[in-house]
Specification:
This protein has 272 residues and is mainly α. It has one domain: MetI-like fold (Orthogonal Bundle). The chain is built from 11 helices and no strands. Helix 10 packs antiparallel against helix 11. The radius of gyration is 24 Å and the shape is flat. It is a multi-pass membrane protein. Belongs to the binding-protein-dependent transport system permease family. HisMQ subfamily.
Length: 272
């Protein structure tokens, strides 16, 4: 009788690529504390960290909600509902994010505000509705809107694939027990689909965080914009963009590790 396979040691389970990156990050952080030049760059660039995180979180949560609603429409048997959202998904996935950012910031946003003013002019004049100008729709919100529309299409395809990956027998069994379509979707299909959707959803979150750097073209004071301004003023391009890359790497690798740990936890829970 053969012996059961031995469990790999804790040392063998260490992801060495991550350990190397952590060592490099610690070294760069130590350099930032020891060197006045790098310390000033860390302080300056770090001022845009909150903006980067805020834009990424708001856009991702909004795109997750919108993408889920779009995915439910995609799997709907009603063609009058599924066909328009298919067109939306194809258009949003086909337009580069930078172009979409410019389009919403400088074309759609002002047009919507102008349409609001024209449609509700009597109510605005009477004081029933507030008057809104283009300046009230800040560039940060325009960036969040553009990222939401762009990524909702990708998330919709992820959610749709997860829903369709659940065996039809699960739906049939739930309906045989008397569950409604909504109850079947909420209690049976989506919990099982989540395990399939988690890796690509985590990948979209990392991509969203990186693409948030595009908001710098609108002058939004994120990490990239502050790094661009600081390097132009000091001519420390290598040092500044090394620190900018460091901030993004810490955030993206941290998110990747968290998603992988969540995947492992779900697998252990499933085996138990």
């Amino acid at each position: 009788m053969s012996a059961p396979p031995s469990k790999p040691s804790r040392l063998a389970r260490i992801p060495w690529w991550a350990a190397i990156l952590v060592a490099l990050s610690v070294g760069l952080a130590a350099l930032g504390l020891a060197s006045p030049r790098y310390s000033a760059i860390f302080t300056a660039v770090g001022q845009g960290l909150l903006v980067t995180v805020r834009v990424s979180v708001m856009a991702y949560l909004a795109s997750l909600v919108l993408g889920t609603l779009i995915a439910l429409a995609l799997v709907s048997p009603r063609r009058w509902l599924s066909e328009p959202v298919k067109a939306y998904v194809e258009v949003m996935r086909g337009v580069p994010m930078l172009v979409l950012l410019y389009y919403i910031a400088f074309a759609v946003g002002p047009a919507v505000i102008a349409g609001y003013g024209a449609a509700f002019a009597p109510a605005i004049a009477a004081g029933f509705l507030p008057e809104i100008s283009v300046r009230d729709f800040g560039f940060e919100w325009r960036a969040v809107t553009a990222l939401t529309f762009g990524y909702s299409a990708f998330i919709a395809e992820v959610v749709r694939g997860g829903i369709e990956a659940v065996a039809k027998g699960q739906t049939e069994a739930a309906q045989a027990l008397g569950l409604s379509r909504w109850q079947t979707l909420r209690l049976v299909v989506l919990p099982q689909a989540f395990k399939t959707m988690l890796p690509p959803l985590g990948n979209d979150l990392v991509s969203m965080l990186k693409d948030s750097s595009l908001v710098s073209v609108l002058g939004v004071g994120d990490i990239t914009q502050i790094g661009k301004t600081y390097s132009a003023a000091t001519f420390l391009f290598f040092e500044t963009y090394t620190v900018v890359a460091f901030f993004y790497l810490v955030m993206t690798i941290g998110l990747s590790v968290l998603v992988r740990r969540l995947e492992a936890r779900l697998r252990r829970h499933e085996r138990a």
